[in-house]
């Protein structure tokens, strides 16, 4: 990911996204890295709900950076080889690219699916012995076509991470389960590749947020970035910011009025995500991401304008736009 120098930081893997939030909030870690959205499957709702913080467990968490990471999924498990023992050694690739018998007819048009899609990847061996799949919930949506083509109807079990999925499959003595995981996990567990690069999109990527605890500078505008130079469009595009807000659900146009504040100050919204607020059923909190950062006149004026039209809002940080840096 390249966000931290291993010579200056000690890495501490956590089991869940919530564990990362806890470690940072408690001051046990200076920074945390959490997934925020995937180019294929959209927002990671687990992370959004932790930012919503209905139980006030993480009141000081803000975003301070982002990284884009290409994600390539593999199907890992034990091959069904009649009359032979399981191949030993880590991550042995089966050379025979044999389609699963269950894939027959997967590209045949039917009334419910008049335009079927072929999977980008094909199994490296028969998958007819696979009875159960393990993976993180986000992975299912990134590999829908492959799963529909070759493993339709197979039981799926959500687990905390794709690496945990590989561990469970490695411990399965029946050899009838498989994991959607990574090539690194195959090396670590000794599992075989049953299929490679099974994600639907070849440019599949996940955006990760770098989080830290809130500091004094997060609550007041910075004098360094105010002024004419700080407010030009090029400078605004160099940064992104995130905040959440709630509005009255009974006042007509309440949400539209809140969003109009951004447009009236020339702020470009890049994403909007609603999540349950926890206040009442069907009441929502809205997360908005936009160009610019706190301390720029347009952003500060927008925040002042929000005070007049929303019930509440929470600042969730500013950071350098990683995509802008690549251009």
Q: Report the helical percentage.
A: 10-25%
What's the total number of strands? 13
C-alpha geometry: elongated
CATH topology of the largest domain: Alpha-Beta Plaits
Strand order, main sheet: write it out: 6-5-7-4-8
Low-pLDDT runs of 5+ residues are: 83-105, 220-231
For the record, the CATH architecture of the largest domain stands as: 2-Layer Sandwich
Distance between the termini: 18 Å
Summarize this entry quickly.
This protein is of the alpha+beta class and 327 residues long. The chain has 10 helices and 13 strands. It folds into 3 domains: 9-70 and 204-214, 3-Layer(aba) Sandwich (D-Maltodextrin-Binding Protein, domain 2), CATH 3.40.190; 74-101 and 117-195, D-Maltodextrin-Binding Protein, domain 2 (3-Layer(aba) Sandwich), CATH 3.40.190.10; 216-327, ACT domain (Alpha-Beta Plaits), CATH 3.30.70.
Describe this entry's structure for a reader.
The chain is α+β, with helices and mostly antiparallel strands and about 325 residues long. The protein starts with 16 loop residues before the first helix and ends with a helix. Mean pLDDT is about 85; it is low at about 85-105 and about 220-230. A hairpin with a 7-residue loop joins strand 11 (about 270-275) and strand 12. It has helices at about 15-25, 45-50, 135-140, 145-150, 160-170, 185-190, 235, 255-265, 295-310, 320-325, and strands spanning about 30-40, 40-45, 60-70, 75, 130-135, 155-160, 175-180, 190-195, 205-215, 240-245, 270-275, 285-290, 310-320. Helix 8 (about 255-265) packs antiparallel against helix 9. It contains 10 helices and 13 strands. It has 3 domains: about 10-70 and about 205-215, 3-Layer(aba) Sandwich (D-Maltodextrin-Binding Protein, domain 2); about 75-100 and about 115-195, D-Maltodextrin-Binding Protein, domain 2, CATH 3.40.190; about 215-325, ACT domain (Alpha-Beta Plaits), CATH 3.30.70.260. It catalyses: prephenate + H(+) = 3-phenylpyruvate + CO2 + H2O. One of its GO terms (biological process) is L-phenylalanine biosynthetic process. Keywords: Amino-acid biosynthesis, Aromatic amino acid biosynthesis, Lyase, Phenylalanine biosynthesis.
